């Protein structure tokens, strides 16, 4: 959360920083600010959006080096004063920071006793004062930053400038991403490649504990021991165009609509029609190893966790290996037993979610074998894992995850097919799944064509104070994801339950004022699901059924009918109408669809 951009080179920094911040706004959007160096530091910062910041930056705001920030508040409410950058009292040092400084209160008290005057409630401001205190005695800004960071407990991605060293920016990472962008006689840094791709595709990811000095003519990186580290630049294949709305009203609708293509990209080159198996070169496992696991444990947060539940189901059904999913944020705190014959799979669109990263690190510490299912190439989680599957879904800009969710489920289908075919899955079933996977992009197009009908339904149900989402077994993670999408972007309260659990408690909530979205595929549980609909209707509940057929009007008020695939793959398709339902409900309610309140893309704090 929060976005950082830094620039040093021959051009004016302010327009580059503003452009980069606009690209990062999905990471935090309660306030924004920037500082440029030109015979002293010149700063502007405001509560509000990057557009509000641009409005207060004068046309002539000269300076060829600068840092900028877009904020998602952790310490102190959104306000002009709490916006970053933060300056030292003498206005010599400026800092932008992502992450949380846990010992900020203690450091603040000491610094105040020593004469520092604080002007914000943020934890970050302690860094500006600490660096200002060491910079005088240090030979370099880099040394001053390193000395100050030794006193910090917590996580950070930072960018620092010193008015007396107008040719360099120092950045450092510990738990919060920093990526360097290499240009022609200019250098960039940001918390996300999104801010860089307009200027360069050559990037270098910092590891935790690393620090870098950027000058117009290049960069130097240092490890925690202050020794120089050698870094190989990576070429990113994401382009600036990926970050445009492409004529859609919102990124979310664009990303929902891209799914035929993004699913095709996740599949591309990975299906083997001769042996009906999936080839996943990045797993770094031979067939013998693939056969050796007795359990699969999947971890991820939020929607990534729900896609992991779909994945666990696919692995159990196709590979017959016991599998389950757990929120990474819980897993890491409960001292899990790490077993050598368990395959661990971490899911993350951003590859930077702190809880997931920390869980992977804990697994690695205990000798666990971890695969990553990740969208962002070269991200921290991808680097930390032993192998994995990239989604190739392209950048996801809207805060709510859609195309990464479906691509993750598809990647799990590939993994399950692979693990199944080196074990017990028959060639006939392998072929069935391969063919089903190939049908997905076209079937997603068919579902997208239902948008006018789904919009009407969204308009009809958007005024509900609360909605229930239910599904059984394969349908349950779909229901969870449907409820998640609705609540995060429309702010309509939504609960998801296994349909089988309804009568054990939540049925008490059902009535005309609480409609139910029921996931009812044509699988072996169809009759049981229809019985549940009867129970809901008997209590006066309205039902919107999403499945493969229209229901008796006695059982459902409305139906969305999606094409059938293989029953194991149906959850992927059943999710898509729910994305459209949430989107149109949010639009009907006038919500800020791409930047829902209180949320940010990439949760890089605990
Ligand atoms: C929901 C959503 C979040 C993310 C979660 C994990 O729409 O976007 O629940 O799925 O924060 O993010 P990643 O996948 O980046 O680790």
UniProtKB/TrEMBL annotation:
Q: Where is the Glutamine amidotransferase type-2 domain?
A: 2-217
Keyword Zinc-finger attached: no
Gene3D superfamilies documented for this protein: Glucose-6-phosphate isomerase like protein, domain 1, Glutamine Phosphoribosylpyrophosphate, subunit 1, domain 1
Q: Which residues form the active site?
A: 2, 601
Q: Where in the cell is it found?
A: Cytoplasm
Q: Where is the SIS domain?
A: 285-425, 457-596
Could you state a single Gene Ontology molecular function term? Answer: carbohydrate derivative binding
Extract one GO BP annotation from the record: protein N-linked glycosylation
Can you state the subunit structure given in the record? Homodimer.
Functionally, this protein is described as follows: Catalyzes the first step in hexosamine metabolism, converting fructose-6P into glucosamine-6P using glutamine as a nitrogen source.
- This one is known as Glutamine--fructose-6-phosphate aminotransferase [isomerizing]
Q: Taxonomically, what lineage is the organism?
A: Bacteria, Bacillati, Actinomycetota, Actinomycetes, Streptosporangiales
* Gene from which the chain derives: glmS
């Amino acid at each position: 959360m929060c976005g950082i951009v830094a620039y040093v080179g021959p051009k004016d920094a302010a327009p580059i920083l503003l452009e980069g911040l606009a690209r990062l706004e999905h990471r935090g959007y309660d306030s924004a600010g920037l500082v440029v160096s030109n015979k002293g530091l010149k700063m502007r910062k405001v509560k509000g959006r990057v557009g509000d910041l641009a409005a207060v930056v004068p046309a002539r705001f000269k300076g060829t080096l600068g840092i900028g920030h877009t904020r998602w508040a952790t310490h102190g409410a959104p306000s002009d004063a709490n916006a970053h950058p933060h300056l030292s009292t003498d206005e010599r040092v400026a800092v932008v920071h992502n992450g949380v400084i846990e010992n900020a209160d203690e450091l603040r008290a000491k610094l105040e006793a020593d004469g520092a005057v604080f002007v914000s409630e943020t934890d970050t401001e302690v860094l500006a004062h600490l660096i200002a205190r060491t910079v005088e005695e240090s030979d370099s800004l880099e040394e001053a930053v390193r000395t100050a960071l030794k006193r910090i407990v917590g996580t950070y991605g930072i960018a620092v400038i010193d008015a007396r060293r107008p040719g360099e920016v120092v950045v450092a990472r510990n738990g919060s991403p920093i990526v360097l962008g290499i240009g022609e006689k200019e250098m960039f840094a940001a918390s996300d490649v999104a801010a860089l791709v307009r200027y360069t595709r050559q990037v270098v990811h910092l590891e935790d504990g690393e620090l870098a000095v950027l000058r117009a003519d290049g960069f130097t990186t240092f490890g925690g021991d202050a020794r120089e580290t050698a870094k190989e630049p990576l070429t990113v294949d994401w382009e600036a165009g990926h970050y445009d709305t492409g004529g859609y009203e919102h990124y979310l609708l664009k990303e929902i609509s891209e799914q035929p293509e993004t699913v095709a990209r996740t599949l591309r080159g990975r299906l083997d029609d001769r042996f009906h198996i999936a080839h996943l070169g990045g797993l770094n496992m031979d067939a013998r190893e693939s056969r050796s696991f007795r359990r699969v444990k999947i971890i991820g947060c939020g929607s990534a966790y729900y896609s992991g539940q779909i994945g666990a189901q696919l692995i159990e059904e196709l590979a017959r290996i016991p599998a389950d999913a757990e929120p990474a944020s819980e897993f890491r705190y409960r001292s899990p037993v790490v077993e050598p014959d368990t395959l661990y799979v971490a899911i993350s669109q951003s590859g930077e979610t702190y809880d997931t990263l920390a869980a992977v690190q804990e697994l690695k510490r205990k000798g666990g074998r971890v695969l990553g299912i990740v969208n962002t190439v070269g991200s921290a989680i991808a680097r930390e894992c032993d192998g994995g599957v990239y989604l190739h879904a392209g950048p996801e800009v809207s805060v709510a995850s859609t195309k990464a969710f479906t691509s993750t489920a598809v990647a799990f289908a590939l993994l399950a097919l692979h693990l199944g075919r080196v074990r017990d899955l028959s060639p006939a079933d392998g072929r069935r799944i391969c063919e089903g996977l190939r049908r997905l992009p076209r079937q997603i197009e068919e579902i997208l064509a239902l948008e006018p009908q789904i919009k009407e339904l969204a308009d009809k149900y958007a005024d509900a104070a609360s909605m229930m989402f239910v599904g059984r077994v394969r349908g349950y993670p779909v229901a969870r994801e449907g409820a998640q999408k609705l609540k995060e972007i429309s702010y309509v309260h939504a609960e998801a339950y296994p349909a089988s659990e309804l009568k054990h408690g939540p049925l008490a909530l059902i009535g005309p004022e609480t409609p139910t979205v029921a996931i009812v595929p044509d699988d072996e549980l169809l009759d049981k699901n229809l019985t549940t609909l009867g129970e809901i209707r008997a209590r006066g509940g309205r039902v919107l059924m999403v499945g493969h057929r229209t229901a008796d009007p006695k059982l459902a008020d409305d139906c969305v009918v999606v094409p059938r695939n293989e029953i194991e793959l149906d959850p992927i398709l059943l999710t898509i109408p729910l994305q459209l339902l949430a989107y149109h409900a949010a639009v009907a309610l006038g919500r800020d669809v791409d930047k829902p309140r209180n949320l940010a893309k990439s949760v890089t704090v605990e």
